[in-house]
Task: structure prediction
Amino acid sequence: MISHTPASPLALPSPEPASSPTPGPAQQPQRRQRFSVRLGHFLFFARNLLFPAVFVVLLFTTKPGFALNSEQMDDWMDLLGFCVVLLGQGCRALAVGQAENIRRGGRTREGEGRRRQVFARRLIRHGVYAHTRNPLYLGNLLIILGLGLIANNSWWYLIVFPAFFFVYWSIVQAEEDLLSSQFGQEYIGYRHTVNRFFPRLIGLRRSCAQYPIDWRRVLRKEYGVACSWLSMGVGLLIWERWESFGYAERAAQIDDLALCLAALLLVYLTMWRLTLAGKFRS
Result:
């Protein structure tokens, strides 16, 4: 007869400790999305300082180049750059002049502090916003591309435009997250029918005719932007001549361009005073 000895409690197998769940493949895109949204909020706060800072750094660390080693070809590149910048300013003017409320950020209280973040009062779908969801950022990218064409330096092409495309892409991620939660299916439907950046040109003229541009609002909102990129463009022309030929050889051109900078400063100060006096109220 075989006897069965009861097993000792010490011999019982101990349960394995519960392991923390590892993130699956489906969770990785969500983490990247959350990171993009947080980064977009931060870049939204710093967006007005980023390009001027990068612009100044590159002026002191890079050298201008001539397209195809030809000064005449470089002049055509400068002209093309200013045309692209004007196209970008036109996108911004359409967005500002056709929408009564295009503010994309403001101050919100958090505890005792205050910080600037993405917010929206209403969903804008008319005018140029019926053809591109982000005409302001599209205009900014075109302005940056145009200034890069004027500089005509490989570092500007390799660093500046890709970096700022990523900056605005991140900001748009944060805005889309906010708009999706705030407006729900209305924004989701809008997002599915209108491109994020590249505009749908069909019907654009009709949309612009239906919503006339408020030029007073454009002047009030955009004089600072226009004076900024014009100053940068003229500064790049001075930089090209100074670095490539020296002041002594191109003194007349550099002096004329410096007078243009002084005139732009005078225009900016005049517009600033008129705006404070309420001359451009809609």
